[in-house]
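3.2 Worked example (two chains)
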Amino acid sequence: MQNRDPLWYDRAEPEEEPGLLLTTVAILFVGALDLYSLPYRLCQAFTGRFVRRVVRPAHRP
C-alpha cells in the first residue's frame, strides 16, 4: 500500500510540534555550538585588526 500511495508519509506522521524537552535540548545544543566557536571568532577578529594595523597598503605617488 505504501508504494502505491505517494502521500502515505503525510498521513503517517502526526501534526504535533516537538515537546518542551526536545525544544530545550535543541536550544542548548545550538548555544553550546556558539560557545564552542566563540574563541575562534575572537581570535579571527583580533588577528584581522592586528594585520590591518601592521600591514598597511603602500602609498602611491
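3.2.1 Second chain
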Amino acid sequence: MRTSRGALPHAAEPPCRPTPRADSVTGTDFRIVELTDLLTEIDAATRSEAAAAAGTGPARTVWDAASVALLPPRLGRPYLRPGDCRAVVASRAGRPVGILPLLRGTPGQTPQALQDPGPELAARLPADPGDLLFVGGCVDLVAGAAVAAELTDEERRTVRRGLVDRAWDRARRDGLVPLALHVRDAEVADFLGPGRRAAEIGVSCLLRLPSDGSDASYLAGLGQSGRRTVLKDRRSVAGAGLRSEVRPAAELTAEAAELVVAVKRRYGVEEHPRLVRARLARWAADPAGERVAFAVCDAGGPVAVTFGCVLGTGLEIYETGLADGHPHRHEAYAESLFQAPIAFAQARGITEIDLGLDATIPKTRRGAALAPTWVVTSDQ
C-alpha cells in the first residue's frame, strides 16, 4: 500500500515469516555462550583483524545490524552484568557470522523500557522481572542480531531465524519468559515462528538523504510544506544569533549532562547529573563507530547538544539535551537535532539518519519516514 510522506501504513500484523527449508541451516553451528567467553573470542578476533589489516591474517568481519547498539564491540559495555548476559552465536567454518545477545532480567527491578508496557503486553509479563529473558538485548530501545555483512540477504535471514529459535528454546528450558523489545520492522519476520506473536510497540523515524549530498536535492524531495519548515528553521537560528558546531562527543559530555537532565525532568523523569554525565561518557568512549556531538550555543555556552554515532553511510542519533526556559529553545532544538546533523551528513556522504523513536511530527515535517517497531512474545 502506498502512503504519503510521513504516513504510517497499517501495521496491525507484522510481515509473515517464510518457512525455512529443511536444509537452510546446513553448515551453520549455533551455540549459546556466556558473555565473558564471547568477549574473549571477540578480543581474539580483533587481534586477528589487526593482523589482517597488516596483511598477515584473514579478512576482518564486517557486521550488519539494525543499530550500532547491537554490534559485537558493544557487548563489552561495563554497565551490562556479565553473570546475567549470554549470547547465541552462529558460526560457519569456525568463524562467527551471527550474534544475538540475551539479557536476564533483574529480580524485583522493572527495566525502564517496561515502565509503561500497556495492558496487552503487561498481561504477558511475569510477576518478577527476574524471570524475563530479553532476546536481542534491552539497553538502547532496540532488539536484534548482528550478522556478517558478507552473507547474502537470504543467508542473513536464515542465520537470524536460527539465532532467535535457539534463544526461545533456551528460555523455555530455563523456565524464563522470552521477550524481544523494539524489533525493527525489517527484521520482525525473522523473530516470528511457531508459538510467537508480535504487536506494535513504537515508531522509528528514518531520514534518507540524496546520495549526491546535495542540499537542493534534499529540499526538492520535501515538498512545499517541508521546505517551508526547513528554511524557517535555518532563518530562525540565524536570527537568534545561535551558532552550531560539530565536536567529538567526549568533549561535550560534561556540559551536556545538565541539558539532558532538563529534558528528562520536563517529561517527569528525574536523573542525577552525575549519573547522566557518567552514562554519556561511557557512550562517548564506546569503540563502535565515530561518536560526535552537535552543539548549538549562545554567548553563554551550549543551549542544545545532540549526540550521534557515524557508522559507514549512516548516522544514528542517540540523545538530545536542551536548556529549559531558554528564549530560543525551539530554534536550538531544530538546529541540534535536524539541521546540524543534516549538514554534517551531506558533507560526509551519509545517506541515512536514524532519528530514533517517537516524536514523529517534527521529524516527518523534515522528511523522515516512519516504520513500526515490534514487541515479540510467546503466544500463550
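3.3 Remarks
Confidence is low (pLDDT under 50) at residues 1-11, 19-23.
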